[in-house]
Amino acid sequence: MGLLRFVLCGVLLLAAAGKARAGASARDALRSYGLRDGRVRTLAWAAAIVAEAGLAVAVAIDVHAAFAAAALLFGFAVAQVAAIARGRSGAPCGCFGARSRLGWSSVVRTGLLGGAFLALPLLPDTEPSTEAWLGIGLGVALVGVAALAVALLALARELGELRLAVAPQAALSIDHEGPELGGRIGLIDRFAGRAPLAVAAFTSPNCSLCAALEPSLRLLANDPDVELQLFDEEADGDVWEALAVPGSPYAVVLAPDGEVLAKGTFNSLFQLESLLGSARVHA
Predict the structure, then answer these.
(1) Tell me: the pLDDT tens digits for 66-117?
(2) Which of 81, 168, 189, 227 is the most buried (most CB within 10 A)?
(3) Does domain 186-282 have CATH number 3.30.1490.480?
(4) Which of 25-39, 185-199, 234-248 has the lowest mean pLDDT?
């Protein structure tokens, strides 16, 4: 009974931790049970976490608390059946966090867990041997490692979603800075004319951002549809002055006839590519 008691308490703690870690997602999952009011969902979410964690500790101290844990789990199973009857199958159930889904499998899982708690006090009370305790310790360690791996993957997923949610900004283009869009400039004579687009990138020798963008510029130079030329603030100061370049890094995209198709300050490869995309639209 000791080992089963330990495992069941661990499952309750895992369920409570999953709800707590999921936070808002777990609270929103309670909509599946008809809880529309946000404050009611928050109270129900907090109550479920406290009840599961508290009963896990209580069962570890006194095995007869397993009856209360069984009652709680059977109540959860009844709530799931009621939600499925209302057509909520497949909706989030919040059992172990945001990813758990309502379905007959979740009902069976919850019912079996409740049945295990109900049967726990009726089992013979035997103490595990030393080898058994060592096995339990190893099992706990492995579960901990698995939990850390899951948490790391979840963190990576959240960071990925955050990066997708925060859309990258396009290059900064201000009308009165740099050459006029649509105008034609003689700078095109500095290019060989072997590509549909000519990109003049303006850099400065003491610009750390320019140095960081060198790999991006080399990558752009390998594009067969683009001819890239760099114009240094010191070595090509006359070009900077003639085009009223506001600072570095800055880029001007030209058509083969010298028409200015796009211009702007860029801080990343994405922003530089956004200038090319704008140029292709106006080409």
Answers:
(1) 888 888 888 888 888 888 888 888 887 777 766 678 888 888 888 888 888 8
(2) 227
(3) no
(4) 25-39
The model's pTM is: 0.44
pLDDT band at 35; cut points 50, 70, 90: confident
Strands across the sheet containing 197-203: 226-232, 197-203, 250-254, 260-265
- Domain range summary for the chain, segments of one domain joined by +: 2-127, 186-282
**Which range (62-66, 249-253, 269-273) has the least confidence?**
62-66
The CA distance from 160 to 163, in Å, is 5
- The model's pLDDT over 214-230, given as tens digits with 9 standing for 90+, comes to 988 988 888 889 999 99
What are the CA-CA distances from residue 221 to residues 13, 60, 184, 195, 245 (Å)? Answer: 56, 66, 23, 11, 21
Q: Could you count the other beta carbons within 10 Å of the beta carbon of residue 210?
A: 20
Q: Name, in order, each residue with C-beta under 8 angstroms of 130's C-beta and a sequence gap of 6 or more.
A: none
Residue with tokens 């867990």: 113
Show contacts of 27-35: CB within 8 Å, 24+ apart. 27/94, 28/92, 29/91, 29/92, 29/93, 29/94, 29/98, 29/100, 30/94, 31/91, 32/83, 32/88, 32/91, 32/92, 32/93, 32/94, 32/102, 33/79, 33/82, 33/83, 33/88, 34/83, 34/86
What is the bridge-based pairing of β-strands 250-254 and 226-232?
A: unpaired
| DSSP tally for the chain: helices H, then strands E | 10, 4
3-state secondary structure of 92: strand
Q: Which helix (H) or strand (E) holds 76?
A: helix 66-85
Half-sphere exposure of 259 (CA within 13 A, CB side): 10
Backbone angles phi and psi of 173, in degrees to 5: -125, 120
Give the angle 205-206-211 at the CA atoms, nearest 5°. Answer: 75
